[in-house]
Structures are given as structure tokens and as C-alpha cells.
């Protein structure tokens, strides 16, 4: 066996590939001998011959046919380490010597055969060699290569961290799926290093040895675009969906308390790690590549705002993501579209992490920057993944912070739809996002965001949010915001009539009402009703000077009819109902105690048994409900008192208001509700 | 008091017709030396920049020649006439608009110094795309941003292109570039309220309330 391969190879010693052409049949025979060798697991011999300088020509000639013989053995790592190592070595040799075009196609074929990422990594080195041999002026090859590589990346899913606590999030790096994603992106970025350098030398630093011709420059630029797209794709998946910064320790502490873990035990479970995840480094790497290759940062940042003349374009692209197969078919036609979420991650790195900001011209107005960033913010806030939402909120906050109050014109709400849609997204996040931290951030960004608009803009945002928001807590927060705007209107002499008088009636109609009239579930909507009543109390007291500053007094008749009276009857109904319920539960407890029964019943949800709340707990819940009604009731009576006092005082001594009532003005907003 | 005889012709007819003399220079000369009435008849009375904007060069040249023909120079009676008019006007018009004008004059938001004249005819209009090379400096001469090849940072070395008059760029640029003509190079000194204001731009090392100095060259209008 041994001798046969050497024997059949010997005649080709020192031959060039060209001269071998005339001896095609003999070379084919040699191939079958090689195959036999491999079948008998004698790879050492094959390697010795293939790596022998004397057989250079032979290797060049048979490389194309050799590849499919060797390729399958790359997956032998576990079973036959020696065989595997030899194959890796030979393939590297083939990549160096074989016809680059042939090798390129051959290697890509091999790549497609293996979905296993380990094998995939072994092929990267040879591929890198081949593509560099092909040169930079071959954008189509780059396109094919990078598309194939990215297809592998796309198959890997980023494990979701939604709803996880800070500690669990740290632990996720130990999830095998997660580390696979992370290492694959690192490996792919590593793969790009020499390619990026080549581009840099050809286009940016203009190394004289490269000295490309004008036609070549165009091709190299196209190659750069391919690499740029690939980098943006990596930013889109997986990087944007991975947390860059682990959450605050404060949250972790809370979580530990909840789980009953002390600091020592914690240290054992999750060793202290870096503050930032590996993926942040990857993202920085991406930014560095874009910079080195001389990609225009302003082009990338302005991309979405300039393309999406119709706001549906982004949505369409997001939809398309779901239908990935379809997207691949379209790829040929839509060559130029860049991934929106990848660009969003780019914008995040640029503006929030402050990475390479010096590459952005410092002449754009802050308002324009906001317009530019909004498509990205919207795309991010519409995603379900918490790390993406968080990045979106931070991006939004970074641009909001750069603006002064009232610097956004309300026209923006009409011309750029995403300015309004983003507010709805934020309310949705405030209500539905499982992460408390993110809900809090959404609340803390929405408020200054609204403040950046002029009075008219603030008015329109509130109006549209009152229409779209149903969650009582969120509504309560918005009503608080309305109160603030009325207050600052009255305090300043800005002469805006958006939050007083006729215009504000339109807002009042939306909040001074019970969703289901007298049958409203007051317990559920308590947050909203308390906020509304506080607002009303504020209005009545602030406007008690008889000057009719707000228009609330003339409106009082309607208010009584549409809100206060129904509320009153709803309140007394609910209170009676719950008081009775408390009594009956007490009775049940007593009965159960007498019979020494277990104090829990049986609760089934969808056929599944759930433990029922113990009766004493039930009583507690019911009693809390009654307290809530008492609280609402007390504010209602306070409001009625004020109405009585001032209705009587108004026409005659409107200017002199009793001190006790004035003091109330300041306390009017004190009952704040957490969402 | 400037007597008529004191006024000499600064330019010959040939000189004035040539491209070397800009209309602004003629307008300045006319406003300095011509009688108010003469200026009003030619609709050249008022703030210099407006006059320059509303009249074309031909009109200025014509007025210039007429001025010497009619010798309608500023005279001792000029101020009296003006006084008369002013009193008449104040009787009719309220003071308000005048106060406003003064305010604008007190705090100019930006100041332009021309370093190299442009073609003096092609101004970028609102909505046009202007391409510019620029160097942005703080008052202490530190460069915070530039796109020129000689700058420290290597950018793509393409001129920056933006839509004029639409708020894409800081206000000082938006207004400043509109006063420039094609191929003009100018130094724009922009007050903070028309630049990055109170908040500054920390990531570009622009401190709060910074006056910015831009050397801008307008190289293209599309």
C-alpha cells in the first residue's frame, strides 16, 4: 500500500502542472490511489507527498479533484485525530497551490456540506488564503463567500434573555448555544482581519505597492461594500440581540434577596465577570473595520432616513426578515439595501457608546440628528428582544439629551410618522415589557422626549396616546404629564392656549370618563381614576381666582354629568360589593376553622390544577381593594368640597381664597402611581 | 460735512463694469455718498445686505453713473430732510418694527468674512444641495472637525453635501451658506445660539456656549 502511492507519485516529481496535462490519465490513476490511502486511513503518506515541494506541480494539477476526497475527513476529529490533522494540513496546501477559482468553489462546496461550526472553522483559513490570492478586485467572489459564511451565522439562534434577572443574564454565557453564537461571530470577525487590511491598504492608506488602476478601484470599492454589508449583518445578527453591558448590581441584589441567596453563595454560583460581554468587543471590532476601510459614517447613519421616504419601507424589511427564504430570492434585485437593525446597532455604537464619533461631521443640527436616528429607534423598539429594546431606548435617550426643551416643531409629528409611533412603542414597552429595568427606562425617556416638542406637539402626542393607551397605570402617568403641562402653562406667560380653554376640553373629554360607565371595574382602573381626580383637584384649586384660567369652571356641569356622578355611583357600588365579599370570606374562614378544614380550595385553569389562594390572603386582597375605594372616595369628596366652596365664592370674592385650600394646590400631585 | 467736490470717482466706467468690482462694493459707496432721496428713487435705501440682494449689478452701475451726472451727493440738507420724514413716519407707524431691527443689529448670530470671492451670482437656494469643504475651529484655534485632505482625520475626502435651508445643519451654516456664492471661500464665525448652544457637543469636544469658526468653501450646488 505504502509503496504504491509513492511509486505512482514518483514519476511526477518535479513536474509542472502544465506538463501534467499531457498525462491526465496517469494523474487520475494516482487520485484513485490517494483515495484508497484515505480509505485505509493512511493519511500521513498523502500528506507527506502533498506537502513535498517536489510535487508542487502535481498538487496544483489535482487539487480540484483532491478536495472532495479529503473534505469529508474533516469531521473525523473525534474519531481519528491524526487523519483530521493531516487533512487540515493538506487542504491548507491545496488552497495555496491550487487554481484559486477552482479552490474557491471547491471550498465553498465543502463549507456547505458541513453545518457543524467546528469543521466550518477549519475551512476558514484555506478560504482566506484563496480569496486573497484572487485579489480584492473580485466583488462577486467576496459576495459569494460572505453570503455563504453569513448563512451559517444565520442558522445559529441567540438564546432569549427576556424576563431573566440580572444574575441569570450573567449566567447565559455558559449556555452552549449562546457561546456558540458568540465564538462564531468572533471567528468570523477574526477571519476578516487580513481582508480589511487589504482594503485599507488599497483604498485608504494608498500603499504604493498596491497602486490600483481606476477600474480596479471601482471593483475594490464594491468589495469594500460587500465586507461592509457583512459587518453590518453581524451587527444585526447576532450582536444587536446580545446584551453588551450586564445590568446593575443593585438589581442583582434585589434578585438575590428574592431568591434568598447571600453574597457568598452568589459568588459561587456566578463568578464576577467583566462588566461588558464579549459581544461588545465584537461590536467594537465591527466599528473598527468600518473605520479602517474608510466607510463613510455619515452615509451609514443617514441611510435609513434618506431611503425610507415611505415609512413602510422599514416595516417591509422587518417583515421580510421573517420570510428569509423569500429574501434570498430577492437578493439579486435589491443589492443595495443595508440591514436596518445592523445600522441601528451601528448608530447605537456611534452615539451611545461614543465609538468613533469623530468620524461624524460636527455640523449637523441636533434636530436633524434626531430625525436621522428615529427610523433606527423605531425598528429597535418594535422588536421583542429585550437587549434590542434596551439599546433602542438608550439610543433615543442619547439624542433626546442633546436637545433643548421645546426644540422640536410639532410639524415633525405630521411629516415623520415615526416620531409619533415611537411614543406608542414606549407606552407598550412600559406596560408589557417583562423587564422592570427596561419598563423604568421607557418611563424615564418618554417624559423628556415629550418635553422636547413645542406646546402643540406635546398636545398632539398626549392626544394620540390617550386614544391608544388602555392600561390604567400608563394612562395615570400620562395624566400626570398633562397636569405638568397645564401647570407650566399657567406659571409662565408663554401665551400658549394648547393646555387651557377650548383645546384642553378635547383632552378632558378623553380622560374624564369611565370606560364602562357605572359598571367599570374601579379596582382595575384605580391608578387612572386617582390621577384624574388629582388633576381635577389641581385644576379647580389653581383656577379658583375667578379669572377662568383653564376653562374648568364653566365645564363643571358637563364634568358632573359625564364623570363625577357615574364615578360616585360606581364607587358606592364597588365598595358595597367588596365589603360584602370581605364579610362572606370571613364567614367562610370561621366555618372552615370550626370544621378544621384546610383553608384553601381548588382552582383549575384550563383543566390544570393551581393552588388556590388561602382564605386569609383573600381577605387581605379584598380589604386592600376596599382601602383603594376609600382613597378614591376621599379624593372625590375633597373635589366636591372644593367645588362647593368656590362655586359659592366665585362670583363675589374669587380673589381671596382660604389658606387651607391653597396649601392643597401643592399637595395636589402628591399621589403618584408606579407603573 | 462732505461737500460735493470731495467725492471723487473711485472706479472708472470700465473698472466698474468688470468682474473685479462686486455689487456690494458699489452699494456701499452709493450708500455712503449719495443723498437719501437719490437712494430712495433707486430703491437703494435700507440695510446694505437687503439692497445688495434686491438689486442686480446693472442697476448699481447705472445708479453709480447717474450719481455723478446728477451730483446727487449727500448734502447738509440731507439730514434735515430725513428728520422731517422720520417725524412724519413716527406719527404714522408705531415704534415696534424699529425696535426689532435694532435687536437684530445688536447680536448678529454669525459673521462672515470672505476669504476668496465666488462667482458672485450663484447662490444656493433653499432645498439645493450644497457641497462644501470645511474646517471647524473653536475660538482657541483647536480644530474639532474638518473634511479637508489636509485635516488631521482622514475621511473619505469627498466634500460634504447637505440640503440647504432645511435644518439639516446648524443654523449658522444654514443661513451662512445661503449668503455665499459658488466657489466662494469664507470664514463663518457662529454664535453659540446658532451652533450647539448651551449643551455643546461633548462627543466632538465642543464645550457649552462655544462660538465656532468655520472656514467653508462652497464647491458645488446641485
TrEMBL record, chain A:
Q: Where is the signal peptide?
A: none
Which superkingdom does the taxonomy of this entry point to? Eukaryota
GO MF annotation, one: ubiquitin-protein transferase inhibitor activity
Q: Which GO terms describe its cellular component?
A: cytoplasm
The family database entries (InterPro entries) matched by this protein are listed as: ARM-type_fold, Glomulin/ALF4, YAP-bd/ALF4/Glomulin
**Residue runs in coiled coils:** none
Supply the name of the protein: Glomulin
Q: Which organism is it from?
A: Patiria miniata (Bat star)
Q: What is the lineage of its organism?
A: Eukaryota, Metazoa, Echinodermata, Eleutherozoa, Asterozoa
UniProtKB/TrEMBL annotation, chain B:
Keywords attached to this Swiss-Prot or TrEMBL record, sorted alphabetically, are: Isomerase, Phosphoprotein, Rotamase
Record carries keyword Membrane:
no
- Write down the Gene3D superfamilies for this protein, in alphabetical order: 1.10.720.80, 3.10.50.40
Instruction: List the EC numbers from the record.
Output: 5.2.1.8
Q: What class of enzyme is it?
A: isomerase
Instruction: Tell me the CDD domains matching this sequence.
Output: BTHB_FKBP25
Name the InterPro entries for this protein. FKBP3 (IPR043368), FKBP3_BTHB (IPR041200), PPIase_dom_sf (IPR046357), PPIase_FKBP_dom (IPR001179)
Q: Does the keyword Isomerase apply?
A: yes
PPIase FKBP-type domain: residues covered? 127-222
Instruction: Name one molecular function that GO assigns to this entry.
Output: peptidyl-prolyl cis-trans isomerase activity
* Lineage: superkingdom: Eukaryota
What is catalyzed by this enzyme?
Answer: [protein]-peptidylproline (omega=180) = [protein]-peptidylproline (omega=0)
Q: Protein name, please?
A: peptidylprolyl isomerase
Q: Which organism is it from?
A: Patiria miniata (Bat star)
Q: Taxonomy-wise, where does this protein's organism fall, top ranks first?
A: Eukaryota, Metazoa, Echinodermata, Eleutherozoa, Asterozoa
Amino acid at each position: 500500500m505504502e509503496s504504491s502511492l509513492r511509486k505512482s507519485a514518483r514519476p511526477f516529481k518535479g513536474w509542472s502542472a502544465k506538463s501534467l496535462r499531457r498525462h491526465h490519465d496517469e494523474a487520475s490513476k494516482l487520485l484513485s490511489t490517494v483515495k484508497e490511502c484515505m480509505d485505509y486511513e493512511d493519511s500521513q503518506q498523502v500528506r507527506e507527498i502533498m506537502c513535498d515541494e517536489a510535487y508542487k506541480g502535481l498538487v496544483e494539477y489535482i487539487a480540484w479533484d483532491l478536495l472532495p476526497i479529503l473534505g469529508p475527513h474533516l469531521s473525523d476529529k473525534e474519531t481519528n485525530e491524526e487523519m483530521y490533522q493531516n487533512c487540515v494540513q493538506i487542504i491548507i496546501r491545496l488552497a495555496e497551490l491550487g487554481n484559486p477559482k477552482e479552490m474557491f468553489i471547491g471550498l465553498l462546496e465543502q463549507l456547505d456540506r458541513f453545518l457543524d461550526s467546528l469543521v466550518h472553522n477549519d475551512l476558514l483559513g484555506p478560504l482566506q488564503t484563496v480569496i486573497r490570492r484572487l485579489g480584492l478586485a473580485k466583488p462577486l467572489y467576496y459576495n459569494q463567500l460572505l453570503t455563504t459564511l453569513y448563512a451559517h451565522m444565520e442558522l445559529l439562534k441567540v438564546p432569549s434573555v427576556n424576563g431573566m434577572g440580572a444574575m441569570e443574564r450573567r449566567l447565559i454565557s455558559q449556555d452552549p448555544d449562546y457561546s456558540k453564537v458568540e465564538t462564531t461571530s468572533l471567528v468570523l470577525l477574526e477571519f476578516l482581519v487580513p481582508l480589511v487590511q487589504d482594503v485599507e491598504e488599497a483604498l485608504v492608506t494608498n500603499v504604493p505597492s498596491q497602486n490600483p488602476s481606476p477600474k480596479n478601484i471601482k471593483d475594490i470599492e464594491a468589495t469594500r461594500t460587500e465586507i461592509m454589508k457583512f459587518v453590518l449583518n453581524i451587527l444585526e445578527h447576532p450582536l444587536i440581540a446580545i446584551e453588551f453591558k450586564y445590568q446593575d448590581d443593585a438589581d442583582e441584589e434585589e434578585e438575590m434577596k428574592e431568591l434568598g441567596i447571600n453574597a457568598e453563595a452568589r459568588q459561587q454560583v456566578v463568578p464576577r465577570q467583566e462588566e461588558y460581554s464579549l459581544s461588545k468587543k465584537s461590536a467594537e471590532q465591527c466599528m473598527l473595520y468600518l473605520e479602517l476601510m474608510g466607510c463613510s459614517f455619515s452615509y451609514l447613519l443617514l441611510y435609513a432616513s434618506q431611503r425610507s421616504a415611505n415609512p413602510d419601507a422599514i416595516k417591509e424589511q422587518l417583515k421580510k426578515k421573517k420570510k428569509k427564504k423569500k429574501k434570498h430570492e430577492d437578493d439579486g434585485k435589491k443589492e443595495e439595501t443595508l440591514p436596518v437593525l445592523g445600522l441601528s446597532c451601528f448608530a447605537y455604537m456611534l452615539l451611545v457608546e461614543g465609538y468613533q464619533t469623530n468620524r461624524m461631521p460636527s455640523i449637523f443640527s441636533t434636530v436633524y440628528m434626531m430625525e436621522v436616528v428615529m427610523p433606527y429607534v423605531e425598528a429597535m423598539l418594535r422588536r421583542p428582544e429585550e437587549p434590542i429594546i434596551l439599546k433602542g431606548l438608550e439610543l433615543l435617550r442619547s439624542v433626546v439629551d442633546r436637545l433643548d426643551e421645546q426644540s422640536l416643531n410639532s410639524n415633525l409629528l405630521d411629516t415623520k410618522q415615526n416620531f409619533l409611533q415611537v411614543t406608542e412603542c414606549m407606552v407598550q414597552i412600559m406596560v408589557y415589557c417583562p423587564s422592570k429595568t427596561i419598563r423604568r427606562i421607557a418611563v424615564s425617556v418618554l417624559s423628556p422626549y415629550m418635553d422636547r416638542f413645542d406646546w402643540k406637539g406635546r398636545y398632539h402626542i398626549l392626544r394620540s396616546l390617550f386614544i391608544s393607551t388602555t392600561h390604567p397605570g400608563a394612562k395615570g402617568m400620562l395624566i400626570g404629564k398633562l397636569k405638568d403641562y397645564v401647570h407650566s402653562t399657567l406659571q409662565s406667560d408663554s401665551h400658549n392656549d394648547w393646555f387651557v380653554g377650548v383645546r384642553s376640553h378635547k383632552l378632558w373629554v378623553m380622560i374624564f370618563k369611565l370606560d364602562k360607565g357605572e359598571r367599570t371595574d374601579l379596582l382595575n382602573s384605580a391608578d387612572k381614576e386617582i390621577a384624574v381626580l388629582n388633576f381635577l383637584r389641581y385644576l379647580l384649586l389653581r383656577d379658583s381666582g375667578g379669572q377662568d384660567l383653564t376653562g374648568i369652571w364653566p365645564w363643571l356641569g358637563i364634568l358632573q354629568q359625564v364623570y363625577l356622578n357615574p364615578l360616585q355611583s360606581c364607587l358606592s357600588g364597588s365598595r358595597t360589593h367588596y365589603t360584602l365579599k370581605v364579610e362572606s370570606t370571613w364567614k367562610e374562614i370561621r366555618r372552615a376553622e370550626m370544621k378544621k378544614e384546610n383553608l384553601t380550595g381548588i382552582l383549575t385553569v384550563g383543566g390544570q390544577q393551581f393552588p388556590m389562594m388561602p382564605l386569609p390572603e383573600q381577605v387581605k386582597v379584598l380589604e386592600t381593594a376596599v382601602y383603594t375605594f376609600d382613597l378614591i372616595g376621599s379624593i372625590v369628596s375633597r373635589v366636591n368640597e372644593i367645588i362647593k366652596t368656590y362655586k359659592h365664592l366665585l362670583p363675589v370674592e374669587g380673589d381671596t381664597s382660604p389658606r387651607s385650600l391653597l396649601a392643597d394646590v401643592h399637595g395636589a400631585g402628591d399621589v403618584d402611581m408606579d407603573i | 460735512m462732505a461737500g460735493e467736490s470731495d467725492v471723487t470717482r473711485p472706479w472708472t466706467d470700465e473698472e466698474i463694469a468688470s468682474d473685479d468690482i462686486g455689487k456690494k462694493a458699489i452699494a456701499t459707496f452709493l450708500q455712503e455718498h449719495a443723498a437719501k432721496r437719490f437712494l430712495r428713487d433707486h430703491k437703494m435705501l435700507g440695510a446694505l445686505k437687503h439692497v445688495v440682494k434686491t438689486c442686480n449689478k446693472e442697476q448699481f452701475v447705472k445708479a453709480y453713473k447717474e450719481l455723478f451726472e446728477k451730483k446727487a451727493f449727500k448734502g447738509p440738507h440731507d439730514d434735515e430732510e430725513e428728520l422731517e420724514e422720520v417725524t412724519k413716519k413716527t406719527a404714522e407707524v408705531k415704534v415696534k418694527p424699529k425696535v426689532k431691527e435694532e435687536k437684530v443689529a445688536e447680536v448678529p448670530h454669525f459673521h462672515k468674512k470672505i476669504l476668496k470671492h465666488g462667482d458672485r451670482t450663484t447662490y444656493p437656494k433653499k432645498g439645493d444641495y450644497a457641497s462644501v469643504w470645511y474646517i471647524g475651529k473653536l475660538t482657541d484655534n483647536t480644530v474639532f472637525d474638518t473634511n479637508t485632505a489636509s485635516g488631521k482625520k482622514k475621511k473619505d475626502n469627498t466634500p460634504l453635501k447637505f440640503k440647504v435651508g432645511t435644518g439639516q445643519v446648524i443654523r449658522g451654516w444654514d443661513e451662512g451658506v445661503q449668503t455665499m456664492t459658488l466657489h466662494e471661500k469664507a470664514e463663518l464665525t457662529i454664535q453659540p445660539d446658532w451652533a450647539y448652544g448651551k449643551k455643546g457637543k461633548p462627543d466632538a469636544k465642543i464645550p457649552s456656549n462655544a462660538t465656532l469658526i468655520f472656514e467653508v468653501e462652497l464647491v458645488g450646488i446641485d
